[in-house]
């Protein structure tokens, strides 16, 4: 989930820290009052698994149900998500999975490893994977996603174990607590994440950031190297280890890992898309178009890449190219985006 590239510290919204991480069973425990409401609204009426799923979705989002609100909230346990009604993608997935299982549905958390959910604030760049919920009904698998339109995914979601899902929770909370300066409890959360899933590179990367924040450069290097042993193209760990070596005056290692980082970024369509956005914002439309085109070569089925290229061609006065890129974006988009792209195509046609 949250993957840190260190430059400074960011205060994310989070609940007051406890003295110790919650026990694993507490993270997904459904409060008695919520269980009673779930039974009344979803389970009691019976029906097919598909009908129960429909009622559960309605219960979770309806104003007279849980009325959950999605946003960049802190990572909550199931109980805290119910109490605050505020969820991020992980809190929602843990809550929905727990409730679905209470109704007898075969539910599990799914992970999408490569997504575009990068954001920056006051010096820290946050790179997040994405999770949602899978429901298995017979031979079919349905997906429930609180933020599908807010992410750009390269691959289909994959089912993960309950241990990996819990590791996401402790990793996220650890990152949030570290950002608030609560280093001791942050470490306890991150160590729990690593204990649950020692093969998750993101947890090791974040643990390295924590060690660096604590003044332990050797511990940070060891954690970054462990992350890279698990995933040699892990961009946040590469970024962090380059910074570590530069600050320490080790130019040879800094240069070596910088080359590795650049190679990883060249093969990352999301990084190319972000570079395109950056150059477009500077008014360098030719470079922006080059990065958008590379993003498309790497991941050509993403309609937003084609739309960005069309926008850049239009800013360069290349109306024919803009029209072709818009048509491709329209062909690949969902119903809502198709209507937007069609309207822009009509504007281009009238301007000829």
From TrEMBL:
InterPro entries: TMTC_O-mannosyl-trnsfr, TPR-like_helical_dom_sf, TPR_rpt
Disulfide bond as UniProt keyword: no
TPR repeats: 167-200, 201-234, 269-302
Pfam families per UniProt: TPR_16 (PF13432)
Keyword Signal assigned: no
Record keywords: TPR repeat
Name assigned to this protein: Tetratricopeptide repeat protein
